[in-house]
Each structure stands twice: as structure tokens, then as C-alpha cells.
Amino acid sequence: MTGQTNRLPTGGLIDRGRTIRFSFDGRSYAGHPGDTLASALLANGEPMVARSFKYHRPRGILGAGSEDPAALVEIVGEGGVRDPNTRATEQEIYDGLVARAQNCWPSLRHDLNAVNDLLAPFLPAGFYYKTFKGPPASWMFFEPFIRRAAGLGHAPEGADPDGYESVNRHCDVLVIGGGAAGLSAALAAGRAGARVILAEETAALGGRLLGIDPAAVAIDGKAPAEWIAGVRAALGEMAEVSVLTRTAAIGYYGQNFVALCEAVTDHLPPAKRPLRLPRQRLWRVRAKEVVLATGALERPIAFHGNDRPGIMLAGAVATYIHRYGVLPGRRVAVLANNDSGWHAAFDIAAAGAAVVAIVDVRSEIAPPFLAEAARRGIPIHASATVTGTEGRRRIRSISVAPLAGSGGAVRIGCDLLAVAGGYAPSVALFSQSRG
Question: Membrane-spanning residues where (predicted)?
Fold first, then answer.
């Protein structure tokens, strides 16, 4: 069993008084209640969790929630029942959790199919439609091999042993998202006497408030945790308000008909899952009004080699520090095109890491940021960008070059690159509703 080498000695919203044992890809690890599989693996110094679809390149943890595109694993239940394509950033750990990496053989660390990466020049997009067409009989020979290589994860073949149920519900106001905006909307609607349903996809209310420095923000004169607890208590006293955590909105249809999927027992060890409860519950909600408080998603930045393990969104790094008490790297570089990257850099430095560079594509940077970076001894590369990265199973260095002028690229060693590309509103449900 590996140790939690990246776990900070204090901080986070986890329960450090109890230890949870779980396994990933045949190795044993430890975590704490409140951890996701991703945060626990990062705490144990494991940056790689998957392999890419086609070239089997190493894949790490990019985000801290449902926005992560690559940290997909397989959860193995009782009797060998498999649940593929589960996001490690969303799966809560529990005692006895067994997770496996996908799209690799014989193991994640030693994937023989990684040879595809070396053959990339000979495997362009759609190569199988052009290469194996003649003579006519050749396609019948090659097709089974191509089909076997396609897809991520293996669909379970046996009968599903779990139970499911559906619920029909009407309400005056459906609030989707349990962050600051969603909590405020639900509280206002509840105080007005409306029948309210508040749906939050994660286990805890608070949204982005859980992933920022609690000393940096005050709401109504209160620390974020105190404010969240107060709102939760107030909502709990309202008979017409229902708060659903671990509940994702999966569809927004006509006439304010919204489908919600509640994960009822996925966070519990199989032996402790009550037989009377389903594994998941489908809520079919018809609302008079719908409040979309779904927040925003941080954008990555494109550059050569931006898919290596150890490259993460800056907001996600801050979330792992403040929510989970995890510092994913010790020598950290930050690439930014907006102010949020500087805030993340200072959070990382305050957590004890060495920030080896802040690379900002902008030529003009606010003087307070420059002064704080100078006070902390952080090198600044303004009007520059990352042009490439190096590393095998995780990032080892970046190349930084100016956007203008004659200066050449410089190489900077690091084991984590935090990328702050700005934020885009989460508009999936809004778009589906034809808003």
C-alpha cells in the first residue's frame, strides 16, 4: 500500500478521523470519507488513471468534477459486476471499493497497446476505412480485430443485480445546481412559500465555494462553510422544500419537464446498501419554473503535449487543495490567460509547493499580482505561452516561448502544470431546452 504523500497535514473538508481502504488497478490505497476516487489517487501520488482511446497515451486527472473528459475507470461490484466509464472525479470512495483502469493490457502502467503511439504517423483518422478494403475478403479478416480495439470499457454481459425506481413529482420551482446561486434561489423561493426541489449532482452543497480559500470570501459576513450550513439548515426547516444531493439533471424537455438521476447507494459499500433502497432513482419532474444554476466550466488551453498526466485545470488544483486537502504536485508551473490563474498560483504556493513559473499570455498584468509574485519569489513570463511538454507517465518539464520578439524557448522543470483558460457557462441544459 502506498502512502498519502500528497495529502496536506491540515485543511480540506474530508474526515481525517477515519481511513478508507480501496484498490485501483490491483494496488491498495487509503483515503478518507469525503474523498473521490480522483482525490484519493492524487493524495497517494498516482497521476495516471487511464489510457487514451486510439493511441493508448497516458491519461491523468484534468478536472475535479463532471467536466473531466478522460479519468474514466471501471468499478467492480459484488460477484464481479462491472460498471464501466465511471468518472474517477465523481465516484466517492468507500471501504472495499475496487476500481480498474480501462483500455489497457495487461496493466495501466505497462500497456502493450501503447505501441500505437509510436505508429501514429501510419494511423491517421479513419485509416481503417482505407487500409483494409482490398482484396475484398480482407475486411472480414480485419474487422473483428478493429471492433475489439474500439470503444472504452467493456459493457457488462450478465443480468444487472441492482434495483431501480422512478418517481413523478410536480413543483413550483426546480433549482438545478447547489452552489451559491442555486442555494440563494432555493432559499428565496422557499421563503416565498413555493414548492421547491433543489438538485445538486455532488454529495455536498456549495459548488465552487468548496474549492476556494475560505479566508478569501465572505457571504453576508460569513465564511463559506458557515453560510452553506446556515442555508442548508433553513431549507431543512421548510416542509415544501426538497434537497436532492448526488442528483444530476440529465434532460430538459418541453413544458419544463426535467429528468433527474439520483445516485442513491453508489457511495456505500455493497454490504451496507439497504435492500429496500434502489441503486439509482429517476425523478420525472414537471416544474412551473426552472432555475439553471449550473455554474461555469474552466477551459483548457491548447498546446503540444497538453494531454499528459500532471496537466490540470487551475481551478481543479485549487479545489483539490481546499476541498480535499491534496496538493497534486511539488514543483508547479501555471499557464494563464486571465486573473484566475494567479489566484490559483498563490493558493498553490500557500499550500507549500514551489511555483516555478507563472506564464501569462497577456502583456499587461495587474500590479498587485506582480507584487505578490515578487514577494513569493515566483518567476513571471509575461506575453509568453507554453509551446510543449515532456514526460512519459507524467509531466516533467514545459517549454516556454515569447509570443513576440526574438527570444527562444526555455525549458522549465515541473511535475504539475495548472492551466487557467478562463470560464465558459455550462449551457448544456439551457441549449437542450431551446433557451
Answer: none
Query: What SS3 state is found at 404?
Result: coil
On whether both 251 and 228 belong to a single domain, the answer is: yes
pLDDT for residue 49:
96
> Mind listing the pLDDT tens digit for each residue in 75-104?
998 877 889 999 999 999 999 999 999 989
Last residue of some domain: 106, 135, 161?
Answer: 161
Domain of residue 341 covers: 299-424
Q: Which helix (H) or strand (E) holds 190?
A: helix 180-191
Identify the bridge partners of residue 312 per DSSP, sorted by sequence position: 418
Number of domains in the chain: 3
User: If phi over 0 gives left and psi between -120 and 50 gives alpha, with beta otherwise, what is residue 383?
Assistant: left
**Cis ω on the peptide bond leading into residue 368 (within 30° of 0)?**
no
Among 49, 36, 40, CA closest to 1: 40
- Please give the distance of CA 229 from its chain centroid, rounded to a whole number: 24
- Bond from prior residue into 58 cis (ω within 30 degrees of 0): no
Grid cell of 31 as nine digits: 483515503
What is the rounded CA–CA span in Å between residue 260 and residue 280? 10
Residue 382, all three cell numbers: 509575461
Q: What pLDDT, on the 0 to 100 scale, is given for residue 235? A: 98
Residues (pLDDT < 50) of the chain are: none
pLDDT at residue number 2: 66
Separation between Cα atoms, residue 179 and residue 202, nearest integer Å: 10
pLDDT number for residue 1:
60
The rounded distance, in Å, linking the Cα atoms of 271 and 357 is 48
Q: Distance between CA atoms of 164 and 166, rounded to whole angstroms? A: 7
Give me the pLDDT at residue 135, please.
Answer: 76
Residues 6+ apart with CB under 8 A from 226: none
Does 430 fall in a domain?
Answer: no
Sheet of 331-336, strand order: 311-313, 416-420, 331-336, 354-360, 380-382
Answer with the one of 131, 161, 191 that is the final residue of a domain: 161
Sheet (strand 27-31) strand order: 27-31, 20-24, 97-101, 72-76, 82-87
d(CA 425, CA 427): 6
Q: How many helices (H) and strands (E) does the chain have?
A: 10, 23
Question: Cβ distance 205 to 232 under 8 Å?
Answer: yes
